[in-house]
Amino acid sequence: MNLPVIFRILGVLLMIFSCAQIPPLLVSWYFDDGVIFSFLTTFFVTLLSGFVLWAPVMHNHKELKTRDCFLVVTLFWTVLGSFGSFPFIFTESLQMSVTDSFFESISGLTTTGATVLSGLDQLPRSILYYRQQLQWLGGMGIIAIAVAILPMLGIGGMQLYRAESPGPVKDNKLLPRVTETAKALLLIYISLTMLCALAYFFAGMTLFDAIGHSFATIAIGGFSTHDTSIAFFDSAVIEMIATVFMLVSGVNFALHFFAWEHKSIKHYFDDSEFKFYIGMLLVIAFISVPFLYFSGTYGFEDAFFKGIFEVVSITTTTGFSTADFSSWPTFLPFLLFYMAIIGCCAGSTGGGMKVIRVLLIIKQGFREIEKLIHPNAVIPIKLGNQRVPERVIESVWGFFSVYVMAYMVMLLALLAVDLDITTAFTAVGASINNLGPGLGGVAENYGSVPVAAKWILCLGMLLGRLEVFTLLVLLSPHFWRN
Does pLDDT of 85 surpass 60? Predict the structure, then answer.
């Protein structure tokens, strides 16, 4: 374990993160909302802490080993999440406990979108902006880590998305170096955010709301500056803009890079994961919209717009709302919730198990059925024309089994702190899949959830964002042995 290098990287990250306090500080100054001190204090505390970690080891430039990467990735979320909670703690008007502040910060950085706050329309503008910015910064980190770092660690099938490959069925190289890859992806991420903000603004949002909601949309976060979320604007145009950008952000960003470089979209339709992703959304929309209409829940226009919006929002694990999907009739709330478990494409800002893993599990299931009929047959699993290595299939099944076990353990823990089964089941799912809203007692927010449950759910958010293995591997005694 190369601790000096880890401390150096962590110190740099903290010093960079301290600069994230400057924009909300300026927002606080502009709107004169009385929160400048909170951001100023957080800025200096974070900057000083980062400098203290970095200064003694600034000249240590050894390369990170695989084991070091696991620790750095985990610390990226936990340490920044901890320092990110300071503005909530220091703002007296919020009266937030350490637990609630950490929960809100982790929820923002992991782009989960679960909140303990209510009365958003009356909160200081700088705090509202800060929450949105946390999600945007978290989404940026997700893209860099998911596409450039996790593939090298071989996390549960993510080897399919190596830094030099834009997809599982492509041979064209992204960029040879991880740093260059991350820069290219960052440029795409910023460009999509700007396009989304402009679209929102010209559709009728204020500049403040347009920027804030573009942050949450591209990051697939779901935080809003209003209690009623996207429904506040009562605009079909805004809903469709959000739907389009949620869809785009749920796609592997490596595919966006290929489109950027080659000025072509043909490769999207050659990608097995993308086709499954779009097909899944279309099927769920074709089920939901007619059911909402024929059940008398909405008229045709509302059934169409609200149905499609909620299907995309929940399935992509964004969590924006134009309707209370938890009150929809019969099986629909659970259908959408199950879709969030599948989630988005690998290499996107979305949560869930990832479409590629579910697709490989399905293909493996069908292969096992065929082997029952032809026991001696050699039946490879393919994505497009590319054969998937057996090691990847094993890794995907390993991820799935650990995911299920972690889900069950956290579910039992929430039941132990006296949550009802619907609330507990969906709260765990909403956190580990980075969705945000659940059903039952967590349909609106998590303010009434017991303190112990909030810490369990924070763990769930981190597990989901770190692809489960990355965090759990740190608990292995073998990891810490030389």
Answer: yes
Helix count and strand count (H, E) for the chain = 20, 2
3-state secondary structure of 383: strand
Cα–Cα distance between 281 and 316 in angstroms, integer? 9
DSSP string, 204-250: T--HHHHHHHHHHHHTT----SSTTGGGGG--HHHHHHHHHHHHHHT
| Kind and range of the H or E run holding 256 | helix 253-262
Which residues, 6+ apart, have CB-to-CB distance to 427 below 8 Å?
A: 414, 419, 438, 441, 442, 446, 449, 453, 457
Cα distance between residue 7 and residue 381, in whole Å: 42
Residue type, 78: T
How many Cα atoms are found within 13 Å in the side-chain-facing hemisphere of 264?
6
Q: Which residue has the tokens 């369990």?
A: 456
Bridge partner residues of 386 (DSSP)? 383
> Beta 386-387 vs 382-383: how paired, if at all?
antiparallel
Instruction: From 59, 50, 39, 117, select the one nearest 79 (Cα to Cα).
Output: 50
CA distances from 355 to 159, 218, 272, 344 (A): 15, 18, 10, 6
- pLDDT tens, residue by residue, 334-368: 999 999 999 999 888 889 999 999 999 999 999 99
| Beta strands per DSSP E along 326-410 | 382-383, 386-387
d(CA 27, CA 135): 17
Whether the Cβ atoms of residue 344 and residue 350 lie closer than 8 Å to each other: yes
Residues near 378 by beta carbon (within 8 Å), at least 6 away in sequence: none
Q: For 372-421, write each residue's pLDDT tens digit.
A: 988 888 888 888 788 888 888 888 888 899 899 999 999 999 999 999 99
Q: What separation in angstroms does the CA of 83 have from each of 169, 236, 278?
A: 40, 38, 38
- Counting Cα atoms < 13 Å in the Cβ hemisphere of 324 gives 11
